[in-house]
């Protein structure tokens, strides 16, 4: 491997990780134009509540955020990114922890969701952008922000039976706060859907 090749690989990996990171920050801050610019126009997104074109994802995210109470907050935390390059294609895989404050039934809750993100990148006209994003969900939790304000019977009353066990609070929150049921293409860790997602990423990269 020549020095120039190594240097270019470092530059490419930095740009790719930066685009993934910016996309998460823009999603949290509501910078919708910049979020859209992180994706190619024909990019796809497959997450817990949405599966489709990235432009539609940005618009639906904007509408979702505008419907939340002012006190609601969220932060997507990216960790341990790993980039695999092949020509003008790349896979950026990283851990993703979503921290949220949500108001449900008049109570404030703190929610966390753990997942792995697979961003498939393609360089077009010299710029790296996301061609497809898929989240692989691992687990979640939901805690009262002030336990003394939430009746002990609250969790016993809510119906979580129709949601995947590993992601029941995340899906419950989505449906209660925004009316969105789980996506039919939801991918959970350790399932055939995860294996298929990873196989698709490997084949997509190899074809680059």
Rg from alpha-carbon coordinates: 18 Å
Which percent band covers the strand fraction? 35-45%
CATH class: Alpha Beta
CATH topology: Nuclear Transport Factor 2, Chain: A
Largest sheet: 7 strands, mixed
Low-confidence stretches: none
Helix/strand order, N-terminal first: HHEEHEEEEHHEH
Task: Specify the structural class.
Answer: alpha/beta
Shape: elongated
How would you describe this protein?
The chain is of the alpha/beta class. It has a single domain (3-202), classed as Nuclear Transport Factor 2, Chain: A, CATH 3.10.450. The protein contains six helices and seven strands, in the order ααββαββββααβα. It has helices at 3-29, 32-37, 54-66, 154-157, 168-178, 192-206; strands spanning 39-46, 51-53, 73-86, 89-104, 107-124, 127-144, 187-188. Strands 1, 2, 3, 4, 5, 6 and 7 form a seven-stranded mixed beta sheet that branches. A hairpin with a 2-residue loop joins strand 3 (73-86) and strand 4 (89-104). The longest helix is centred in the N-terminal third of the chain and has 27 residues, at 3-29. The chain is elongated. The mean pLDDT is 94.
